[in-house]
Amino acid sequence: MKSKTFRETKKRRDKKMQDTKQQWFKEAKFGLFIHWGLYALLAGEYNGKKTDRIAEWIMNDLDIPAEEYEKLAAQFNPVEFDADGIVRKAKEWGMKYIVFTSKHHEGFAMWDSKCSDYNVVKATPYGRDIVRQFREACDRHGMKLGFYYSQAQDWHDPDGYMHRKDNSGKNYRAYLERKCFPQLRELLTEYGEVALIWFDTPMGTTREESQEMVDLVKRLQPNCIVSGRIGNGLGEYMTTGDNFIPRLPYEGDWEVPATLNDTWGFNKDDHNWKDAEEIIHLLVKINSRGGNYLLNIGPEASGHVPEESIKILDEVGKYVNENEEAIFGTKRVGIYAYELDWGMLTRKDHKLYVHVFKPRRRVELLNIGNRITGAYLVADKRPLEFETGATCEGCSSIEVEVPEEYFDRKNYSICLEMEEEEPIFEPIIG
User: Fold this and answer.
1) 117-153 b/e with 16+ CB inside 10 Å = b?
2) Which of 99, 141, 145, 19 is nearest to 295 (CA)?
3) Is 317 helix (H, G, I), strand (E, B) or coil?
4) Which of 3, 264, 268, 313 fits as disulfide partner to 43, beta carbons 3.0 to 4.6 Å?
């Protein structure tokens, strides 16, 4: 007899694909995640002990008592925080939406919450509403804004869940009524149009409780998207595991939450930064398989964004802006017979984009059976010479001549215009 776990997994796998019904989300492809809270003060270390896990989980992982951890609020005074500067940078990097951690698992609200004084306005010397500042900055710059909200885990509330701890004596319902539901109402009624609520770690939340949260969001803001981590299969898009990318193209709306180094919240000892080229390749891979890339920065306690993050994303932004046609609004590419060690493919109707990551004198593609009507360099739209035919072995062949000044370049894209709406990928023969 198959186990309950197997049956539940199969049921989740067989459910219909998730659909936000929001065109902006389908076309966005690239967003900015921001993890920021009291954990930034500890920066990965408490009382001389360093966490070997992600920095924003330090309260849980190092078993810091709530009454000790909450004292951090008296030290939180981010005088270098500049919401406008962060939003302007996100625009420069080509990002189409921002998700800010309004309340992480630590239970501390980054806005002026009326139902809990454990918040940035009432409990800190800073005394200003961070969420409000992001709202105003996003409005000024035409940026979509969503809020991460930890609905089940709250390590400060005595009835909130805690991972890897005994939750059996907790009154989770009391926590929902006392804090979770009222705070969601605040975020959805006092901070303008909310693009999405990014729920996380549902843990023991029942399907009925998850449905209550969905109903609350939709009653207050019908167009606000509910993320996959609401739990119980009720999300409007699929959220992958952190930094995990589906192996194959994936139908429906989905998103990869990801980091620039190995942590989300600021950790002074984490210098394992991905370089810009790796981030570019990950972005295109995710887009090619049909998803959005939600890439994180973790500001320091002062509000300053680490210089490494800025440097990496400035370079990524150059690629994104030069090749935006080949990134935004693209659709899932089917399974191509070959894995290219020098590039990747994205597509729109009647257009196949070839992202070239290594220097080449010409771009060669096999086993694509479309009638190609034109080719051009995406960055400046200049027409390129191309030839279609067949190899000696009888496979379809496309060759595009790369401009001489690009012979030694990498990280650019070429568009192939197709008579057909979708690419025709042929099997390997011979």
Assistant:
1) ebbbbebbebeebbbbbbbbbbeeeebbbbbbbbbbb
2) 99
3) helix
4) 268
Distance between CA atoms of 249 and 289, rounded to whole angstroms? 4
Quick one: the chain helix, strand, coil %, rounded to 5?
30, 20, 50
- Alpha carbon of residue 170 to chain centroid: 32
Give the pLDDT of the chain (430 residues) as one tens digit per residue: 444 444 444 444 445 689 999 999 999 999 999 999 999 999 999 999 999 999 999 999 999 999 999 999 999 999 999 999 999 999 999 999 999 999 999 999 999 999 999 999 999 999 999 999 999 999 999 999 999 999 999 999 999 999 999 999 999 999 999 999 999 999 999 999 999 999 999 999 999 999 999 999 999 999 999 999 999 999 999 999 999 999 999 999 999 999 999 999 999 999 999 999 999 999 999 999 999 999 999 999 999 999 999 999 999 999 999 999 999 999 999 999 999 999 999 999 999 999 999 999 999 999 999 999 999 999 999 999 999 999 888 899 999 999 999 999 999 999 999 999 999 999 998 6
**291 touches 246 (CB < 8 A):** yes
Token pair of 425 as six digits: 């990928």
CB burial class (10 A; 0-12, 13-18, 19+) of residue 420?
Answer: middle
| Per-residue 3-state assignment (H helix, E strand, C coil) for 62-111 | CCCCHHHHHHHHHHCCCCCCCHHHHHHHHHHCCCCEEEEEEECCCCCECC
Q: What is the pTM of this model?
A: 0.95
**265 in Cβ contact with 72 (< 8 Å):** no
Contacts 24+ apart (CB under 8 A), 250-253: 250/289, 250/290, 250/291, 250/332, 251/17, 251/290, 251/332, 252/17, 252/18, 252/19, 252/290, 253/18, 253/19, 253/20, 253/25, 253/26, 253/292
Give the integer Cα–Cα distance in Å for 287 and 285: 6
- Indicate the DSSP class of residue 404: G
Q: How far apart are the C-alpha atoms of 276 and 344, rounded to whole Å?
A: 16
416 φ, ψ to 5°? -105, 120
Candidates 233, 267, 270, 268; CA nearest to 252 is 233
Angle in degrees, CA 113, 116, 117, rounded to 5: 90
Largest distance between two CA atoms of the chain: 74
101 bridge partner residues: 148
Cα dist. 117→50, 74, 120, 127, 239 in Å?
Answer: 29, 13, 9, 12, 31
